[in-house]
Design brief:
Rossmann fold; single chain; two-stranded antiparallel sheet; globular; five-stranded parallel sheet
Length: 308
C-alpha cells in the first residue's frame, strides 16, 4: 500500500477519503484540514489574541502545535495557553508538566489556574460534598460547568479575543447525541465550529479540530512523538459521555461515516439557529453573563451549600 501523495509506504488508510498516507503526508493532511476549517468558518481574525485551552492530552497538544504553525504566517495575532487544574490527585499532574514542556517548545506563554483558586474547592472536594448532600449530579457535570467558567474568567483577564479548544469530531458527535437524549434542543441548535452569536462577557470559543476524528489526533500525536496520558480521570466512567462514546464507536465500526453525518447535521441546524436570540443578563450572585437569573455555576455551588 502506497501513500496517495508521495508514493512512499503508507501507514494509515482513511475510510472516509479512501486514501492511504505515509506518516509525513498524513500529518500534512490533518494540518491542511484544520487550516481549511479555520478559513471556511473564519475562526480567527489577523489580529486576534488567541488563548489555547490546553490540558496536556493528545487533542490539546495537537491543537497547540498546528495553531502555532498556522499563526506564524499572521504576525498580528498573538498566542497564549491556559490549563485548568481540577485538583484530581495523580491525574492532572502529567498534564501540567506536559503543557509546560510543549508551550516552552512552541514559545507560547502558559497560564495555570485551578478550581481551588477560582471557586474555593477542588473537584474531589466538590464530588464529596455532592455525595454528602445527596445531590444526584455526577462529578463530570460539575467539572464541565466549572471548567467552562474558569476558561472564560481567565480569558477575560488575559485579554483574549478568542479561545481555541481541542474538541475533535468524536467529541462533537458525542455532545450532539447527549443534548438530543437530554432534550436540550436549544443547545443542540447552537452547536457549531464557532458561536452563531456573540454575547457581552463571553469570550468566543472556536473548534479548529472539529472535523478531525479522534483516532487521527491520536495518530498525529504519536507520529510527533508526544507523550500521552497513561492514566484516565477517576471520574470518567461515571459520565454519560463515556456511555455515548462506546455506543458511537460501535455504530461507527459497523457504519463508517456516522460521526461525520451527525456533526454535518448539527452544522445545518446551527445555520438555522442564527435567527434565535438569547437574552443575556448578569447572574445575581457572581455577575457573570447567563441566560438565567442565576448562572449554572452558582446554581451547582448553591446546591452543594458551598456558595461564598
Amino acid at each position: 500500500m502506497q501513500c496517495v501523495k508521495c508514493g512512499a509506504k503508507a501507514v494509515y488508510y482513511s475510510v472516509y477519503s479512501g486514501h492511504s498516507f505515509c506518516a509525513k503526508c498524513f500529518m500534512k493532511s490533518v494540518e491542511q484540514r484544520v487550516r481549511a476549517t479555520i478559513n471556511r468558518y473564519k475562526l480567527f481574525d489577523p489580529k486576534d489574541r488567541i488563548l489555547i485551552a490546553i490540558s496536556g492530552g493528545k487533542d490539546s497538544q495537537v491543537l497547540a502545535t498546528i495553531i502555532a504553525k498556522i499563526e506564524k504566517g499572521f504576525p498580528g495575532a498573538t498566542l497564549s495557553a491556559l490549563i485548568v487544574d481540577e485538583g484530581v490527585p495523580g491525574y492532572r499532574n502529567f498534564g501540567l508538566k506536559r503543557s509546560r514542556e510543549l508551550c516552552d517548545e512552541l514559545g507560547i506563554e502558559l497560564t495555570t489556574t485551578s478550581f481551588k483558586e477560582l471557586f474555593g474547592y477542588s473537584l474531589p472536594e466538590i464530588a464529596s460534598a455532592a455525595e454528602k448532600r445527596g445531590v444526584s449530579l455526577r462529578a463530570c457535570t460539575f467539572c464541565g460547568v466549572l471548567r467552562r467558567r474558569a476558561i472564560n474568567i481567565k480569558a477575560k483577564e488575559l485579554g483574549a479575543t478568542k479561545v481555541a479548544t481541542g474538541h475533535n469530531l468524536d467529541d462533537e458527535a458525542q455532545t450532539a447525541l447527549m443534548n438530543l437524549l437530554r432534550g436540550d434542543a436549544l443547545r443542540l441548535l447552537r452547536l457549531g465550529p464557532k458561536p452563531v452569536e456573540e454575547f457581552p462577557g463571553f469570550v468566543p470559543r472556536v473548534k479548529p479540530l472539529r472535523y478531525i476524528p479522534e483516532k487521527e489526533t491520536t495518530l498525529y500525536a504519536y507520529f510527533k512523538g508526544y507523550p500521552l496520558y497513561e492514566v484516565e480521570c477517576p471520574y470518567v466512567r461515571e459520565s454519560m459521555r463515556d456511555e455515548i462514546r462506546f455506543i458511537l464507536n460501535e455504530i461507527e465500526g459497523r457504519h463508517p461515516g456516522t460521526k461525520y453525518a451527525i456533526v454535518r447535521a448539527v452544522d445545518r441546524l446551527s445555520t438555522m439557529s442564527a435567527s434565535l436570540k438569547v437574552r443575556v443578563r448578569s447572574c445575581k450572585y457572581c455577575g457573570e453573563p447567563t441566560s438565567r437569573e442565576i448562572c449554572r455555576v452558582c446554581e451547582l455551588l448553591e446546591a452543594l451549600g458551598v456558595m461564598s
